[in-house]
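User: Round two. Same drill as before: sequence, then structure, for each protein.

Assistant: Same drill it is. First protein:
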Amino acid sequence: MNIQRIVHLTPPLIAPDNIKEKIVCIRAHRERMFQISVESQQNKLIFHNYGQGGAGWTFLFGCVNESIKQFEEQCTLNSALKNESICILGAGCYGLLTAILLKRKGFNVHIIAAETENIPSNKAAGFFFPRPRKCSTPDEAATFLSLGIHSYATYLDIMNGKHPFIKAGPKLLPAYFGLDIDPGFGPYVEQELMNTSEKVTIDFGNGKTYEAMEYNTVFINSAAIMQELHRNIGELGIVITKAEIQEFGDVPEPIIFNCTSLGAKKLTQDKRLIPVQGHLITLKNQPPMDQLQYMINVKVVMTNALGKQRDELIYYAPREDGILGITFIRGQDSATANQHEFDRLLERCHNYFGT
């Protein structure tokens, strides 16, 4: 008879003196499918790469590779493009990585960004989560898979010291998902990029136990990779100009890579691009972090102010001294926190972790 393995975990501490910062993050989410395409407009050749929403780090390398592939296909059709200057709009992980790869290929690149510090790329919890969106078509789901596989393999290359210019950031950690959550890892296991999952019992040592699926997957230290990308930007001498572009015609270069996140809404009038507000809580005064090297992604049932029950999410990841999340409030573009969402997040985390 098979006996289900018990995993003993140290829970994060979430009393008031364990709360470091409450963060609101606005992400650009494109319904059904993110946008990777090319178009001609205002005498510009524009390569769009936006709308990844909360899965930006998950699909980073696959999406940027696909966007540059589209550019190289255009260069094959028109060799004169190889001599043109390129402007990258956006200084998040997509804009920085695009600029670095193009510069390393010999192109003259320049970044313009409305914001360079207070951006979603710096705030991510670090989950690799490649599941297609529920409304995606079969072809779109296949794109999610291929681009996710490319990104995951790249993260493994970084970990194994095989990446040409990123030397730190990801690491393999156990990740525990609720039984009702499919993170989309099946094909990764089939391609032997990830170990087979196992049903286990989590025991927090305080009376709180749960069944979950255990995966050994990549934790993405977004802050560390952003430092690596900025280091490369500096070493390559790529200039970042802080400015807000109102329309593509304001850009002097004839070739544009549009990696603008929420800015793409104004530039493209894309009706499927919507803001999504997320609430995150960073932690402090924790047990030794070597005891907290795991990830949690579960749904719990909570009762709202109207007395109605709804599923809500709990994320935990060991970013710095730990981070908790998350909300996914569609259509909300305000960076002002809904304070009750932080209260609800803490309530469900207290209930789940028992601390």
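Second protein:
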Amino acid sequence: MDKYACVDPVDPQDQTAFAVARAGYPIIFASAFITAVFALLDFTVITLIFVAVTFFICYFFRDPCRVASNKKGALVAPADGKIVAAQIVEKNRFIEGQCLKISIFMSVFNVHVNRIPCKGTVTRISYHPGKFISANFDKASSLNEHNAVFLESEKGQQICFVQIAGLIARRIICTLQEGDRVNCGQRFGMICFGSRVDIYLPADTKLLVAVGDKVTAGTTILGNWL
């Protein structure tokens, strides 16, 4: 095996040192094609601009392999980014009653591939169209286009993680279906170009992160079941 190859232990697939998510292929190829056209027309400045754009798109759609925690009861981050909210909420539209809500904001510089927080079974998936407010605002949770995934853990705990579109995000990708059995850290989708992921957990979950912390999908432990 190539010394730079990497096989994700919870989501096996061939990986390279700089893997790219399949969702990015059409955009990358389109940008590369436009770059080639301008190069053939000898438009040097525009060509260089599109070379930079193409490289940035490749960077945005990077999909590194991750090793998820095998710690019993661990709940890992579903997204890369910055914690912008971590608090108990009395009411929400996803889980009945009091729960712990953690919000992760992803800038365009973060990896945008999303991962499963814990092992369990997908019980429901609910997509809602909406607005495209900047995802770092808390009101984005309720007003923006979003896709909610409901999951039951092996011990029966109910959680929900929500992919939320941002100001320039216009595509939410989710590969899950109801009834799917999933593993902690498994890839399940992505949101294109800046976004947010909220996760709703039982209120008695032990919180291990704080507002301002930077987290990594599949590896950073957000909390533990008590």
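The helical segments are 25-40, 44-60, 140-143.

User: Perfect.
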